[in-house]
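Q: what sequence does this backbone want?
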């Protein structure tokens, strides 16, 4: 697993590009998908290459909840960040730890801070 490789999944192609560009500019390797089914098919083979998945909650064809469930079955060590236009208090989102949730609209600086915080234990293990 690469501690700097992130998979971005969102049905909005522009957001996939925006998140991917911001992450790449910060030194991460990124694979982006605008279709969750394509992402899951790819991750079925390549899940061990990723340390983090960033996914939208509401997408056609497959929900963020389904994405999380499938990824967790593949590899429980992969971190997950959920993005949604819903507020965190929404009942469906209560199963997600608040620190793993980003509400749309997203400020890129906030997005990158959440990513770095989520991956920081990986860096501490590698360095320490």
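A:
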């Amino acid at each position: 697993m690469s501690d700097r490789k992130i998979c971005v999944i969102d049905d909005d192609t522009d957001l996939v590009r925006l998140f991917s560009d911001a992450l790449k500019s910060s030194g991460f390797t990124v694979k982006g998908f605008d279709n969750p089914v394509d992402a899951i098919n790819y991750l079925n083979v390549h899940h061990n290459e990723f340390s983090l998945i960033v996914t939208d909650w509401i997408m056609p064809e497959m929900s963020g909840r389904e994405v999380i469930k499938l990824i967790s079955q593949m590899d429980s060590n992969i971190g997950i960040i959920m993005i949604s236009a819903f507020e965190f208090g929404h009942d469906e989102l209560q199963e997600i730890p608040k620190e793993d949730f980003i509400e749309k609209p997203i400020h890129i600086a906030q997005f990158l801070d959440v990513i770095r915080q989520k991956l920081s234990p990986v860096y501490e293990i590698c360095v320490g």
